Structures are given as structure tokens and as C-alpha cells.
């Protein structure tokens, strides 16, 4: 993202990030949806901090998808 902002190259970014950057220019149509994976060590999967982050990210991504789909 930083290098794309500086004009050094291009970046493949999620729409949520790219559209929030007024200095960036979209050069192609959005690509097909893809999966998002959150990886963490097995020993940490049940810790409260990891659960809180996982739940927050899941809710945030779902809300972004819903708001994007409703605006189409």
C-alpha cells in the first residue's frame, strides 16, 4: 500500500482499503472473491485475546461484505 501510494508500483488490495485511499487509482475491475484465513498457533486458539480478535475480525468482514452487497 505504501509503495503504491508513492507511485512505485501497483498493489492488489481489498476494496475496503483501496477505496479509502484517495491517492490511489483503480486500474482494473475487482477480482473474484477469495477466502480469508486467520492463522494462529493451536496452543493459542482458546485464549481470550485470540478469541476476541477472531470474533472482531469475523464480524467486521461480514459487516463490510453486507454493506458492499447492499450498495450494489
Question: Can you offer a commentary on this structure?
Answer:
With 72 residues, this protein is mostly helical. It is built from three helices and no strands. It has helices spanning 2-5, 15-18, 48-70. The protein starts with a helix and ends with a helix. The model has no long low-confidence stretch (mean pLDDT 86).
Summarize the structure.
This protein is mainly alpha-helical and 72 residues long.
Largest pleated sheet: none
Radius of gyration equals 16 Å
Order of helices and strands: HHH
Q: How many DSSP E strands?
A: 0
Q: Helices and strands: which structural class?
A: mainly alpha
Query: Percent helix among the residues?
Result: 40-55%
- End-to-end span in angstroms? 25 Å
- How would you describe the shape? extended
Percent strand equals under 5%
How are the SSEs ordered, and which strands pair?
Elements lengths: L1 H4 L9 H4 L29 H23 L2
Provide keyphrases for this structure.
43% helix, 72 residues, mainly alpha
Amino acid at each position: 500500500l505504501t509503495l503504491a501510494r508513492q507511485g512505485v508500483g501497483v498493489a492488489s488490495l481489498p476494496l475496503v482499503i483501496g477505496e479509502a485511499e484517495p491517492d490511489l487509482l483503480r486500474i482494473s475491475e475487482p477480482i473474484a472473491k477469495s477466502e480469508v484465513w486467520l492463522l494462529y498457533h493451536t496452543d493459542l486458539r482458546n485464549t481470550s485475546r485470540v478469541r476476541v480478535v477472531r470474533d472482531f475480525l469475523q464480524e467486521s468482514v461480514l459487516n463490510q461484505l453486507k454493506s458492499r452487497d447492499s450498495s450494489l
